[in-house]
Structures are given as C-alpha cells and as structure tokens.
Amino acid sequence: MAQKIQSVKGMNDLLPVEQKDFKLTAAFWQAFEDVVGRWAKSYGYSQIRTPIVEQTGLFVRSIGEETDVVGKEMYTFSDSNDSLSLSLRPEGTASCLRAVVEHNLLYNSPQKLWYMGPMFRRERPQKGRYRQFHQVGIEALGFEGPDIDAEIIAMSADLWDKLGIRGYLTLEINSLGNRKERAAHRAALVDYLTRYEDKLDDDSKRRLKTNPLRVLDSKNPDLQEICNAAPRLVDYLGEESQAHYRCFKTMLDGLDIKYVENPRLVRGLDYYNQTVFEWTTDKLGAQATVCGGGRYDGLIEELGGKPAASIGFAMGIERLLLLVHEYGSLKADAAPDVYVIHQGDGADLQAMKYAQALRAAGFDVMQHSGCQSLKAQMKKADASGARFALIVAQSELESGSATLKDLQGMHGQQTVAAADLINTLQQWKSA
Ligand code: ATP
Ligand code: MG
After folding, report:
1. Closest Cα to atom 6, ligand 1: which residue?
2. CA nearest 42: which of 126, 161, 167?
3. How much is the CA Rg of the chain, to the nearest whole Å?
4. Three-class SS of residue 344?
5. What percentage of residues in the chain have a pLDDT greater than 90?
6. Which atom of ligand 1 is found nearest the CA of 90?
7. Quick one: average pLDDT of 373-381?
8. Angstrom distance (rounded) from CA 46 to CA 33
9. Per residue in 403-420, pLDDT tens?
10. Is the omega angle on the peptide bond into residue 263 within 30 degrees of 0, that is, cis?
11. d(CA 239, ligand 1 centre) in Å
12. What are the chain's domains?
C-alpha cells in the first residue's frame, strides 16, 4: 500500500463526525455560520470576501514589522515568476481595509463590513491555537465613536447570548490614547523598563528596543511584578482621549454590560489606538482570548486612503466553538427529516420520485442507495438521525402509496396515498 499523506501540522480537517482531539464538526461549524450571517445582517453589516494571499508589504505596513505575527509567524513566499513577496493572510483587517481603499468604498458613506474565513500563523499548535485558524471579524469604518465603540461591544455580547456562552466570558477594556500620548508614555515606559533590564527575559529585552508597549503583554510570571508597577498608559491620556474613554464606559454601563478595566491590555498588533478590548474565558487554558479588537483610526490613511476613523474586532472561531461545544446552546442540524427506504423491482425509482417531491416541498430527504434488506435499511434510517422513514415496498408500489413511520414514536406508522404524503408529513412535523 502506498504511504498515507498527512495533513499539515496545526491545520484541521472539519469532518461530519467529531475527532478524538478536535470536537468540532462541519455541521456544527455550519450552524455557527448561519447564526453569524443573520447576526451581522441584523446590525446592518455587509459581508466582504478578500483573497487569502496578499502582498507581504500589506501586513508589514499595517500589523507592524516588529510584531510576532509579521516577524515570526507569517507564511511568506515569492511568486515563481517575479520577485513579489506574497503572504497567507494572518488576520483580516489589513486585507479588508486594503480592499476598501482600493475600491474607494468610503467615497460616499461610512461602511459596516464583516468577514469570515481562514487565517494563517506559524505558531506552536495546541488546543485553541492552530496554524490555519478561522476568524469572524467586523469593521466599522468612518465612525469616530465612542457610540460605535459601545455598539460593537453590545453586538459581540449579543452573539455570545445567541450561542449561550455569555456567562463564560469576561470583557476587558483599556484605552491606548492617541499617538502623542502613546509617545509620552512610551518614553516613560522605556525609562522604567531600562532600569530593570537585567531582570527582563530575552523576548522582553528585544521588545524593549522594538515595541516596548508589548513588554506589558508578557505572560512570563517572573515579570508580572515589574509590569504591574510600570507606568500606565491611562495616566497619560489627555482630555479628549479621557472623554472618549469615559463616554464609552458610560454607554457600556447604560447597556448593562459588565467590564474589567485592564491597564495592561495592549493587543498584539501595532495599529490600535484609543479603545481596545478583549473577551476572555478561563475555560480554554492558556488560549484565553476569544475575541479582540479596538480602534485603529490611522490605519486607512497608512494604507493610502483618505483618513477615516475605524474600529473593529475579530473572534477566533475554533476557540469560540470549543467553548460553545462544551458550554453553549448551539446545535448542529445535520440530520435529514426523512429517510427513504425501498424494496422490490421498480421501488427505488418510485422512492426517488417521492423523495424529489418531498424536497420540493421543503423537506431534507436522504434516499437509501443500493439494495439491502428492509431491516438493514431501517437501521440506517435510525442511525441517520432522521425523524421519519418513508417506505416503498412491493405492496406500496402496487397501490400507489407509501408507508410513513415516525422514528421517534409519536405518530406510529401509517400507509398513505401518494397524493397525501406531503400533507401527512407536514402535519406530523408540526405536531
Ligand atoms: P493570542 O494572544 O491568543 O495569540 P492574538 O492577540 O494573537 O491572540 P488576534 O490577532 O487579536 O489574536 O486575533 C483575534 C482572535 O483570533 C484571538 O482572540 C483568537 O481567538 C484568535 N486567534 C489568534 N491566533 C490564533 C491561532 N493561532 N489559533 C486559533 N485562534 C487564534
Ligand atoms: Mg497571537
């Protein structure tokens, strides 16, 4: 036998059935996508789909060269015929804003956009952290806030409610202020951290030179004391930024959304300013952040567009669904309504005709393929999860009827004329 070829490490198959180390099925995923599509539309967001491959320069410029994502985690390659460097997208915002600028979508009016799809980062795979993972994200472009800041938080909270996991998530918020305020804070922070340089780990030493704010993001327990006592960005906010943050919090209070202020919340990508937030859980081990976002008012301009205030968030679908699978209320709906069983010459064709008529009437119908004993087919019908079986054997074939069986018991079994099939099933289904 030829050697089997394995999938790429950290990249999952979504199967019809649960896997030992990956519980999410394609049907569960699809159920989530259905909820998400309706949810986004109910807030006035339109879907945008961009390519998975972009010029590497897009991510270098937006996410930042010194971030882990761009510095260490991107899948980058050169297109064979030219020297253009391309990368698999590690997140969705850069591509989305690139498209908005390229197609001049902000010409007439602000935009509310959402996207969903695979992202790629070469990270160490573990539960909740993969090399191909998926995000749903929203972008509200051309809105100054802080009303929209609060609205998108409410929007995310609403999705947690719809999925039955609100109680397992905590909202953390912070403000990063504007560029000037961040620069003043950065100077104080570098000053402070330099005093403790010999105590810092290698990662933090590097970040101290390249991106000092990210030192505060360190998960190293030995550094927590130093980080906790470091100068806090919130103390460097000017009146305008303070007012923005205050108003944002007042609206959250008014919407009865609980939050924790975390002055060390800085987010992993460079482009954020003012409001930032994360929804975290203590149910997924180290992979605690399910959704993160904030303002990035300067990003559109940086990508060559006219300046436009922007805010958005992205959630990791795998992490979210692992939580939903264990604690939430979402149900996968993979079972057909009706399983069609047939036996005898010509019965398969007649059964197929009934099946087509039922589908046209809105039923999901699984037709048994091939010939097996009625008993074996009945077993398959039970295993399919179908609510009803439709049986066409010799006697039904001769009398132009079919036998319906309620596999969950309530209606028992009944032979009905072909003309009454749909009616009867509709009554059974709604009873
Ligand atoms: P983390 O700190 O966990 O690495 P991040 O700050 O790098 O997360 P973002 O870039 O903000 O993550 O992406 C938004 C969300 O996408 C995260 O909150 C998480 O739910 C999900 N996510 C990010 N990286 C991965 C990954 N490698 N595998 C699975 N989900 C991921
Ligand atoms: Mg990360």
Report:
1. 268
2. 161
3. 27
4. coil
5. 79
6. 10
7. 94
8. 14
9. 999 998 888 999 999 999
10. no
11. 32
12. 26-177+237-327 (3.30.930.10), 338-430 (3.40.50.800)
Which amino acid belongs to residue 135?
Answer: Q
Residues 130-155 have pLDDT tens digits of 999 999 999 999 999 899 999 999 99
d(CA 420, CA 361) in angstroms, rounded, equals 13
Counting ligand 1 atoms within 8 A of each CB, the residue from 287, 291, 324 with the most, and so the one to mutate, is 287
Counting ligand 1 atoms within 8 A of each CB, the residue from 63, 121, 319 with the most, and so the one to mutate, is 319
Question: Whole-angstrom Cα distance, residue 422 to residue 244?
Answer: 59
Q: What are phi and psi of 178, to 5 degrees?
A: -100, 180
Q: How many CB atoms lie under 10 A from the CB of residue 89?
A: 25
pLDDT digits (tens, 9 = 90+) for 155-179: 999 999 999 999 999 999 999 999 8
Nearest to 289 by CA among 253, 309, 261, 314: 314
**Contact assessment for residue 290 and residue 320, using Cβ atoms and an 8 Å cutoff:** yes
DSSP string of 126-157? BTTB-SEEEEEEEEEES---SHHHHHHHHHHH
| The pLDDT of residue 82 is above 80 | no
Assess whether pLDDT exceeds 90 at residue 47: yes
Instruction: Please tell me whether residue 401 adopts helix, strand or coil conformation.
Output: strand
Instruction: Work out the end-to-end distance of the chain between its first and last CA atoms, rounded to an integer number of angstroms.
Output: 53
314 C-beta closer than 6 A to ligand 1:
yes
Query: Known binder of ligand: residue 293?
Result: no
Round the average pLDDT of the chain to a whole number and report it.
Answer: 93
Q: What is the edge-to-edge ordering of all strands in the sheet holding 260-261? A: 46-47, 111-120, 132-141, 310-316, 289-295, 273-280, 170-175, 260-261
Residue 172 near ligand 1, beta carbon < 6 Å: no
248: amino acid identity, one letter: F
Query: Given CA atoms 137, 142, 169, 176 in this order, what sign does their dihedral have?
Result: positive
Report which protein residue has its CA nearest ligand 1's atom 16.
316
Model confidence band, residue 33 (pLDDT cutoffs 50, 70, 90): very high
- The response to whether residue 137 sits with its C-beta less than 6 Å from ligand 1 reads no
Query: Which atom of ligand 1 is closest in space to residue 314's alpha carbon?
Result: 14
Give the residue-averaged pLDDT of 115-143: 97
For residue 288, is pLDDT > 80?
Answer: yes
